[in-house]
Amino acid sequence: MIRPAGRTAVDGYIDDLPATRPEGVVLSVRNLTVGFPTDDGMVQAVRDVSYDVSAGEILGIVGESGSGKSVSSLAVMGLLPKSARITGSATYGGADLLRISQAARRSLRGRKIAMIFQDPLSSMNPVHTVGAQIAEAVRSHEAVSQKVALERAAEMLDLCGIPQATRRLKSYPHEFSGGMRQRAMIAMAIVNRPELIIADEPTTALDVTIQAQVLEKLFEVKDTVGAALVLITHDLGVVAGSADRVLVMYAGRAVEKGGVDEVFYRPRMPYTAGLLGSIPTLGSSGERLTPIGGAPPSLLNLPKGCPFIPRCPLAGPDCSVAEPDLTVTDAAGHEAACYHWDQVAALEDPRMLHHPAVIAQIVTPETAPPRGTRAAEATPIEGIA
Amino acid sequence: MYGLVTISGDPLQDLYEDQSPNKQAKIDQRIQILELDKPVPQRYLSWAGGAAKCLVPGLSCDLGQSRTGQDVTALLGDAISSTLALVSASVVLAIVLGVSVGIVSALRQYSAFDYTLTFAAFLFFSLPVFWVAVLLKQYAAIQLNDWLADPVVSTLVVAVLAGLSGLIWASIIGGDRRQRLLVFAAAAIATIATLSYLSAVRWFAQPALGPAAVIAVSLAVGLVVTLLGSGIRRRGVLYASVASAGLVGIVGTAASGWIETNASWTVLAALAIAAAAVAAAIGYALGGMDRIPAIRSAVLSALLAGGVVFLDLLLRAFPSYKDAVNGRVVATIGERTPNFTGTFWEVQIDLATHLVLPTAALILISFATYTRFTRASMLEVLNADYVRTARSKGLTERTVVVNHAFRNALIPVATLAAIDFGSVLGGAVITETVFGRKGLGSLLIDSVRNVDPNPVMGCYIVLAVSIVVFNMLADITYAYLDPRIRLS
Amino acid sequence: MTAEATPTAAEEPTLVGPLPGVEVEREFTVKARTQGELVRRRFFRHRAAMIGLVVLLGVILLSVTSIGIGPVPGWWNQDYLATGSSVDGGRPTLDLTPEVVDGQREFIGPHPFGQENTGRDYFAMTMRGTQQSLFIAFSVGLISVLLGTLVGAIAGYFGGLLGNVLMRITDLVITLPLIVVASVVSFRFGGAGVGALALVLGLLVWTQLARLMRGEVLSLREKEFVEAARAMGAGPWRIIGRHILPNVVGTILVSGTLWTSSAILLETALSFLGVGVRAPDISLGSLISDYQAAFQTRPWLFWWPGLFIILIALSINFIGDGLRDAFDPRQNRVRA
Q: What does pTM read for this prediction?
């Protein structure tokens, strides 16, 4: 679909938004499963993940490295290597992105759905100027001249907060600073006014001081263009401050889903609780941090049952029978994949779930956890509530 | 080095067995020429003094004399032109072929094409150059010449070639099963048709393209250059390229008579420049939205079309050349047929036929190196983040490969070229010896064997200088390709 | 894996996994292997390298045992020096479909590779040539690896004057194509025998490996684990031996193998040109050189030595490729 050439005016390009921006759900992912065959077996990177993204909202996807958060988005974009085994569906605009033709997918990428990657230095071609690369994104979807494309590129760079945008068009990526580079990437992603932006750890490679600035800019730009944003990160703080809804992933699976305030103040899954509990807060100076013990499981040989068992204080015999699905908890729209979410809900401060004292309190004869798990090793400590 | 050569043997060795009456006079003469009565360090100094004169412009170079009294500088002059022709042809061909095959191999990783090619590369890499050279000289030359006498392509060969061609094209173009089958069939049929026709009319005995073919091929050249470069959807580029190429083809054919009689390298160079200028103008005029790519593409197409015209004219002279050399077209000794006179075209053919076999021997190993290296480099680039970004922008696969992957994959190849040049020179030493070409290599070896230090030193200097120059060229290319290392 | 979360084998397994009685640990991890094991495993799975290894060993065995080496005699009845009368124009008697003569089929015959014009058995000559060429190639490989590793490591780690001197020397040798330098050098010393030739070539080639080694050591020297070792008080030799060398072993092995294959091609080329192994001794290269004109009449004199050179070089190259793949940690062939 190439729209006819005709836009030459620089002013008003961005103001001239199409009359209709989508309403409702923009992207609908159902039962997405991604596996990679390797010499040692099939690695299940993403397992049965489902989520929706509504128009204009920010969905945060959080998880540790290896939780499958990046892979799931790459699968939606169709950027995984040919050897990947993908099942499920990702519906956008009425079509299943996983089933449409290559040509159709290409037409959507960079135009309707754009992606921003983690490391802007390696994600930009070092031998082409920044302007050329942004212009390329324009010209692959619209029949305009190079001159017009470059003008649009300059406008985008300016929008993203890069000074002297027109001059910077001729610079090479290595001549930019880290923050500037990422802004240029953002410019490249929004130049065709996409409806959905997927940002894969956009600030992880940046200095902390720059991170906030770049994120600010990203949210600003997203609103200007009117796109929805999927923000993938392992940094909970980033999500807490800006996202509308959040999806927590662990071992390739979605383990908690809901509004960001709901999930962050009232987590219902022990993993989320542990994540939140392990963040140092301003009030907790001097205390020891409460990490989640253990390490994430290997995605090669996942056993039956919940993958969080070895690290979970609430693990019971029913947990190892079958992996829990996302089930609605006490609040609407808030789902958690845990059989014992009510126990988590019962705690006064769920974020302290992994504190040894709290664990000791939970252990009762009825809920005696299996030996060999964290819960079993906890020793009771007197006098701490 | 000088000392090493001098002490490696007795320069008067062969004269001791001389039976002629003026043996003593010859010995004395040689002693005088080589200054054998003086101690080695002094000889070296006097040589160095002469050599230093080369660095000062205006003074003539004095690199000493060979043991037969010949001026080394003069010897070098002839040798250099011979070796230069051989080495340039080899390097250019090896790079063009090696890089293209390497890229295709990387794009079709793990395919049959890829595996066969990898194995072939290994094989070529392990071949001794001298063995291949001797094989070509003793076997291929004779067989080829015999075949050219009555060039009929047997049915078996046609079938085999058709099958191979089908397999190769199917592998290169890829696609699903149905598409591959179609490509295979198309390629096989095309090969069968072409070969049968060529065989029936004994085309190889009197090859000629004819004006129609020349124009058709020129137009096709324009099309292909656009296809591979900017993509045919960029109409401006397409029109410019096809127009320039076609124009060159038509004008070339029309003026072929004139060109044929007035040929010389200067005339041809002037024509090439003119063609490029006209093509640039056409590119500018027809380029539309893509002026610069159009100009580039048009100039390239025009030059290539010019090459096609050149080829046609060359082929026209082929039959008369064949008669002149009594049917022994493919030569095995020297750089040109001794005492050969003929038209410009015949002379060029003569030079070319003498280059064919030695170049074939030389490019084998280089080709293997370039293929493997380009393939590895391309694979690495194809997995790079920026290629993923390019795909995420919705670019076509062709754009991703050509504009992003290709340019980055080429960068390390420039470094490889610098290193490989050394090995090409080394291979040239062997090839020249086998094929009797009087180049730097054979001069060197002969002089070493004759314990003649001056030519050896002369050769060393030339070789060293050429390597330095080539390295500089490679560095410049590297800087052009990779903006990260340019001085900012 | 953290110790606290996993039971030892002695404890009763408490979770039901895919297999009964399997501990928790195994279900959650990939079996840990040492670097050496990983490399070995990958190498032995490389089919081409294995074929190369087998072929190379076969050639070595054949050449050494057939005509014997030194004082030890071989099982072949001919000698490579004895001349005699030519049987059947010297044609090879190797035949895969022989006729029955006297109730027996002669597959090999007295002269399987044929004879050259003075009646010498070509199989014996080829074997002798193979021995010489192999000896030179492996000596060159060994010398260059040993010397190159030692000097390169020292130059790389300690730097300074030694490093610079080394670089100048290698530059001198590297600038010109090896064969150019080698021809002069070997012409001078080649007459002194195969051992001398091997030594001389080795001395030319080791500089390349030393340079490579120095580069690797230089970059490793700056890595954090070396800094950490230094901070813990390890002396330079200990650092080189325990930390740096194991990391460059891969590169050295691969380079050494590839240089060995280059060495055989270099030596045969030099012998072909007449500046390497010289009469009366035989090398595969000298054989080809001596009989190149006979191609029309006695092609076997040309094919057999060439075939052996190609076999040897090809096998060594495959082995080198296998080693390279084995040592490359990024290699992970995804089963498409």
A: 0.79
